[in-house]
Amino acid sequence: MTVARILDEKGHDVVTAAPEVSLTEVVATLADRRIGAVVVVEGGAIRGILSERDVVHAIARHGIEALRLPVGQCMTRDVQTCEPSESINTVMQTMTSGRFRHLPVLADGKLVGIISIGDVVKLRLEEVEREADQIREYIATA
Question: What's this model's pTM, rounded to 2 decimal places?
Answer without folding.
Answer: 0.86
